[in-house]
Amino acid sequence: MDSENSPVVDAEIINDEALNKASAGGAQVLINMEGLIKSHVSSIDKLQDEAKKHKGMLDDIFANDPTYQAHDKAAKEASKVRATTRAQILKQPQAGELASKIKALKSEVKELQIALSDYLQEYNRMSGVNEIEGEDGEVREIVYDAKLVKKSSIFK
Q1: What is the distance between the alpha carbons of residues 73 and 60, in angstroms, rounded to a whole number?
Q2: CA 134 → CA 10, 16, 113, 139, 147, distances in Å?
Q3: Is the CB of residue 95 less than 8 Å from the CB of residue 89?
Q4: What CA–CA distance (Å, rounded) separates 28 from 154?
Q5: Can you name the residues that pair with 140 across neighbouring β-strands?
Q6: pLDDT tens track of the chain, all 156 residues?
Q7: Which residues, 6+ apart, have CB-to-CB distance to 147 below 8 Å?
Q8: pTM listed for this prediction
């Protein structure tokens, strides 16, 4: 189109000051969000430390109870017998083959799930849509699970 036939569009001229205020507002929101994240991480760490302390105290109570100790020892013996029996059964050709097949299938499912996650992220990025209809006609929502993990000391 040439400029003579173009429709006139109303526009607001944003000066640098207005743009800086908008950027500053976004920066403040980001700073506030970072503060919330840090305070939640700190709270989680404190609660986990407290839970560890209480778990240690509870473990001590169990360790000092003779009835519990007797039952725990019996349970460990039964668990050893069960593990030995399981290992003997897995030595049978049919059971061993099935166990191997199950392991291979679980590995394949995990690989497919990782690939699906990558495809869903790309689909969401390209389309802007967070839902997809499956071959069965069921609509599924694309969701993300964000976590914080500590960086290892190797990268520091």
Answers
A1: 16
A2: 43, 48, 15, 6, 27
A3: yes
A4: 32
A5: 132
A6: 445 555 555 655 656 665 566 667 778 888 888 889 889 989 999 999 999 999 999 999 999 999 999 999 999 999 999 999 999 999 999 999 999 999 999 999 999 999 999 999 999 989 999 999 989 999 999 998 888 888 876 655
A7: none
A8: 0.57
Q: Which pair of structure tokens corresponds to residue 20?
A: 């800086």
| Phi, psi (rounded to 5 degrees) for 4 | -75, -30
